[in-house]
Each structure stands twice: as C-alpha cells, then as structure tokens.
Amino acid sequence: EEITLKPVQDTGNILKQGYLEKRSREHSFFVSEWQKRWCVLKRRTFYYYANEKSKQPKGTFSIEHYSARLAFHLRKDSRKRCCFELICPGKRTYEFTAPSPAEAEDWVDQIQFLLKDLSSLTIPCDEEDKEDLYNDVDSSDSVNTASHNTTLNQDEPNIEMEEDDIYEVLPGKQPNKQ
Questions:
Q1: Biased-composition ranges for Polar residues (predicted)?
Q2: Is position 128 within any domain?
Q3: pLDDT grade, residue 122 (50/70/90)?
Q4: What is the average pLDDT value for the chain, to the nearest integer?
C-alpha cells in the first residue's frame, strides 16, 4: 500500500502554523542566512516547508526535550524583537524570526504549552509496557476487593456492619446487628 503525501494543511492536528524565517545551518556568500519557511507545529513535531503548498518538508524534528525562548541576540536589525530559538542540549539549535514580536511570543508560548503538556502526561497512551503500572482499578491482588463488593451490594440479608465500618448505610436499609 502506497502512502500519498499531502500538503501540510491536509494533515490535521496542527496546533500552530505560519511563515517564519529560519536561520540556515550553513550559510555562504550565495545562500541567504535567513530563509522564509512555512512552519507547522503538531503534537510532538515541528515541520518546516519551502512554502505552504509544499508536499515534502524541508526538515522536521521532534520538539520533545527542547525548550523555546525569545532570542533578541540573533539579529542586529529592526527584527531582533521577532526572534526565538528552540534549544536542546546535545542537539541542533533552531533559530527563527516571526513576522512580529507578538507572533514570536505566541510561537514560544504555544511550544512551551505543548512541552509542558507532553511532560505532564501521567498515563502513557502508546507505551504498552507501562500499562500495568497505572491499572489499579481492577487489581486482583487487592485484599479488600471481595469485601468491598459485597458490602456495597446490600441485597444480601446476612451482612454484618460494625460501628467503625467505612461504608454508608443507604436510607431504608438498616444493618443487621447481633
């Protein structure tokens, strides 16, 4: 089965997208230092394309473990307040210029929000090996499971309840005392 590549706007789950200038890793006399790219932020991945109609990204990277911050030092011109960077120790730093300072702040805020959301996941959805660590609802080794179920089921007439019992007595049902 062949996978057809779609333009980026058809891929769904997009959190933020728009044109940014991306600083090229290697710049020379012939290549501009800042190149206009259509950038797309999805749940875990940052994509950048030549333009918004491109089917194939020029680059992509996972944003997990990265941090985003405004970076006014990247440019010396009037656009310096529009700059931000994505940094991860031991990995490539990505540098961008947004169309406006407000837009740069919004990109940083969106990325930070996403990173915070990724780091706060308590139940992993795609890691099968961790599934049992969080499944405490139906644990069969629980000592109180049987007594808990029968105490809540008050249809049985011979249930004894002590004064320090933690279960509530339903109206109209009185516990049998001996």
A1: 140-156
A2: no
A3: low
A4: 77
